[in-house]
């Protein structure tokens, strides 16, 4: 059932609010943001902020499943806020806040966990991947998707812009929403939660890292959005390629350099570089230099904005405080509905 069908049978939903959608996404402050985060999640989220009411948050409760250094968690959280704002998040349109400023989500996560089937969580790819990477098998890590479902459902979210690796988490969220609606939704309303949709950009669903695998801070193959010039150049120059000699024609489709170049160059520039690849006569080193130039240029206005924001420390605190206030308003309304539906006071 789509959200719109549900509205049709949902007399207690304010008709006026049907005209806009709620957009929500979160990002963990578990490290420094990279261009995979930017193209996969931040840029689509920023583009969507004009299309409805957006809620974007720094998932610090989630980050506790991997970060054990409180100073680092605090610094990273601030840095994520700064970077997101510098990249174009407009606090007049989107509420930006820290997840832990809305502790009601942990209550909702508990309520959801009471109906969440073990088997559903046992099938989580991200849980299995994290164990394979050496993270301890904690209850928090296992429950991660339930807290994420609470994040999404507590704001009556319609659309969730994320990268492809988060798709299964949104599916779990939908399953839990259906389960809650079936278990506790009483006729004629029959409704507690909306079913959110993931919004995944096909062109940027998996941005490759310098080794050609999915870019991720935990794989050490990242190019950071706001890395310094020397480091960024070094990372770009160390992109892994095949050993085709300069004169050989090269296949653009399998090339990490070409894929990253396509994200930051104009259509004409991409067409030109594609031709240079196919024609032969240009070495990978030259293509990497061109990629670095484009990449550096692409983020230049954002670097400038970031510098300006750094000069005013209270700016970010104010943005986060205002965002948290709005998020709390909505979360309190939804929790009232949930508590009443399940029989809590
Ligand atoms: P990481 O893998 O570096 O730890 P996160 O899991 O914190 O990144 O991801 C934050 C957001 O950025 C998610 O929506 C995720 O899907 C997106 N994202 C992360 N890496 C990539 C990538 N390489 N390509 C596309 N999207 C990505
Ligand atoms: N799990 C997401 C990630 O690692 C972060 C996240 C937490 C999130 N809660 C969310 C994303 C709710 C979207 C919606 O990137």
CATH superfamily of the largest domain: HUPs
Number of H- or I-type helical stretches: 15
**Level of helix content?**
40-55%
The number of distinct β-strands equals 5
The assigned structural class equals: mainly alpha
Radius of gyration: 22 Å
The gross shape turns out to be globular
Query: What compounds sit in this structure?
Result: adenosine-5'-diphosphate, tryptophan
- End-to-end CA span: 30 Å
Low-confidence sequence ranges: 1-18
Domain count? 2
Structure summarized in a few sentences:
With 345 residues, the chain is mainly alpha-helical.
What report would you give on this structure?
It is a single chain. The chain has helices spanning 3-8, 35-48, 60-63, 70-86, 104-113, 118-122, 125-132, 139-153, 167-184, 229-237, 256-264, 267-279, 284-298, 300-310, 313-342; strands at 21-27, 52-58, 94-98, 159-161, 197-199. It has 345 residues and is mainly alpha-helical. It has two domains: 3-206 and 313-342, Rossmann fold; 227-298, Tyrosyl-Transfer RNA Synthetase, CATH 1.10.240. It has a three-stranded parallel β-sheet with strand order 1-2-3. A two-stranded parallel sheet has the order 4-5. Helix 9 (167-184) links the parallel strand 4 (159-161) and strand 5. The radius of gyration is 22 Å and the shape is globular. The model is unreliable at 1-18 (pLDDT under 50). Adenosine-5'-diphosphate binds next to helix 2. Residues 27-28, 36-37, 40-41, 162-163, 165-166, 204, 206-207, 214-218 line the site of adenosine-5'-diphosphate.
């Amino acid at each position: 059932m789509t959200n719109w069908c549900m509205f049709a049978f949902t007399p207690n939903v304010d008709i006026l609010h049907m005209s806009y959608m709620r957009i929500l996404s979160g990002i963990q402050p578990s490290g420094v943001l990279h261009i995979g985060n930017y193209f996969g999640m931040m840029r689509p989220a920023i583009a969507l902020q004009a299309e409805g009411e957006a809620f974007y948050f720094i998932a610090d409760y989630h980050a506790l499943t991997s970060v054990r250094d409180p100073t680092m968690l605090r610094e990273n959280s601030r840095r994520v806020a700064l970077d997101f704002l510098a990249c174009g998040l407009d606090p007049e349109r989107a509420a930006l806040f820290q997840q832990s400023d809305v502790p009601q989500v942990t209550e909702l996560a508990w309520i959801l966990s009471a109906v969440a089937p073990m088997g559903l969580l046992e099938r989580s790819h991200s849980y299995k991947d994290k164990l394979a990477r050496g993270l301890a098998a904690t209850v928090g890590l296992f429950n991660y998707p339930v807290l994420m479902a609470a994040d999404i459902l507590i704001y009556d979210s319609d659309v969730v812009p994320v990268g492809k690796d988060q798709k299964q988490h949104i599916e779990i969220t939908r399953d839990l929403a259906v389960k809650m609606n079936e278990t506790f939704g009483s006729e004629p309303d029959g409704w507690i939660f909306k079913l959110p949709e993931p919004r995944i950009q096909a062109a940027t669903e998996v941005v490759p890292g310098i080794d050609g695998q999915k870019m991720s801070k935990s794989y050490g193959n990242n190019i950071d959005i706001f890395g310094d010039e020397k480091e960024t150049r070094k990372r770009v120059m160390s992109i892994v390629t095949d050993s085709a000699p300069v004169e050989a024609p090269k296949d653009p489709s399998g090339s990490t350099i070409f894929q990253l170049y396509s994200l930051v160059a104009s259509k004409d520039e991409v067409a030109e570089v594609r031709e240079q690849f196919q024609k032969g006569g240009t070495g990978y080193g030259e293509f990497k230099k061109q990629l670095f130039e484009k990449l550096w240029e692409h983020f230049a206005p954002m670097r400038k904005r970031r510098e300006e924001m750094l000069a005013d420390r209270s700016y970010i605190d104010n943005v986060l405080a205002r965002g948290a206030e709005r998020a709390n308003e909505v979360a309190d309304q939804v929790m009232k509905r949930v508590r009443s539906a399940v029989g809590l006071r």
